[in-house]
Amino acid sequence: MSKYLFPALVLAAAGLSACCLTSVADEPSKPQENHAAIQESAEKFTKAFNAGDAATIAAQFTENAEYLSEDGSVIAGREAILEDFTETFKQSPGLKIETTIESIRFLGKGVAIEKGTTWVTRKEGDEPIQGGYAVLHVNTGEGWQIAHVREIAVPQTSNYHRLKELEWMVGDWVDEGNDSLVVTSCRWSKNKNFLLRSFKVRIAGRDALEGTTRIGWDAEAKKIRSWTFDDAGGFAQGFWTNDGDRWIVKMNGIVNDGQIASATNVFTYIDSNTCTWQSMDRVRGDEVMPNIDEITIVRQPPPPQIDK
To answer: What is the domain extent for residue 53?
Structure first.
C-alpha cells in the first residue's frame, strides 16, 4: 500500500463532526473562512480518493510538496505524488477512507498545521487500517494546499470509527416529566474506544435509581455492544443495530432479585439537541411488562458564564 495512504488523506473529512475540530490559534485574518476553506478542500479530496482520481488529489499539493513516511523516506514534488497515487489506485481499486480531523492550528497568516487520524479500507468487509498524520497547509493566494505531510505512529488502535455514528450522544441530556426527572451524561473514554454514559432518575424529588453504561465495539461479534449497571444491583448487556436515524438495542440482564429481564430499547436521533427513547417487548421473569411510550430527551444548555 502506498505510503501516502495514511497522512496524505488529511483533507478527507467525511462524517466530520464539529465536536472533533479544535483550533488553538486562528489566523488573524478571517479565521472562520480559513477553517471552512480547508474543510471544503477536505470534502473534495475525499470524493477524489474514493473515486480513484489521482489527478485531483495531486492538485491539492503544492508543486514542491514533500511527504515524510514513518520510516523516514521522502517523496518530493507534485508529479511524484501523482505517480504514487496513480499506481496505488491501479494496484488497489476500490480503496475507501474515513478521516477524523483532531486539530487545526494556525501559525500565522497563510500557514496552518492539521493533525488527525485516518482509516483506510482495501475492500468492503476488510478491517480498516488506522494511521495518524500531521500536515502543513499553506495559502498560496489561490487557495489552501498541502506543502508537507508527515506520518505519525498510532500507539493504540481506537474503535472510534465504529462508534462515531453515536457521537451525537456526547453531552448532558434531560427528560423532565410531571413528577420525574432523568438526567443523562455521556462522554468519550481515553482513545475513544468507549462511550461512557451515566444516568440518574429522580421521582417526586427523591433519587430513585442511578447507574452507568459503557458502549463499545465487540470485535468477536462485530457489533456495537453495551454493558449497564445500576445502583440497585442489576446489570444488563445490549447489542446495537442501526436503522437510519434509529438505534435498536436488544437488552437482556439480571435484576437485583435474580430474575432474568429483557427489552428492546430504541434511541431515535431527531437533531443535534433532541432525541427520543422508548422501550418495548419488556419481560421480567415470567411477567410481560407494559411498554414505555416514546419519550423526548433534550440536550442541556451549558451553564451561564458569570462575568468576573
So the answer is: 7-155
Query: Alpha-carbon distance 116 to 74, whole Å?
Result: 20
pLDDT tens column, 233-269: 999 999 999 999 999 999 999 999 999 999 999 999 9
State whether 222 and 292 are in the same domain: yes
Q: Do residues 237 and 227 make contact, with C-beta atoms less than 8 angstroms apart?
A: yes
Could you give the dihedral angle defined by the CA atoms of residues 185, 187, 189 and 193, in that order, rounded to the nearest 10 degrees?
110
Beta bridge partners of residue 180, listed in sequence order: 203
Of the three residues 120, 155, 190, the one that is the final residue of a domain is 155
CA-based radius of gyration for the chain: 23
CATH number at residue 210: 2.40.128.20
Distance from C-alpha of 85 to C-alpha of 67, rounded to nearest angstrom: 13
Q: How many domains are there within the chain?
A: 2
**Per-residue pLDDT tens over the stretch 31-65:** 678 888 888 877 888 889 889 999 999 999 999 99
Residue 290 is given by DSSP the state: P
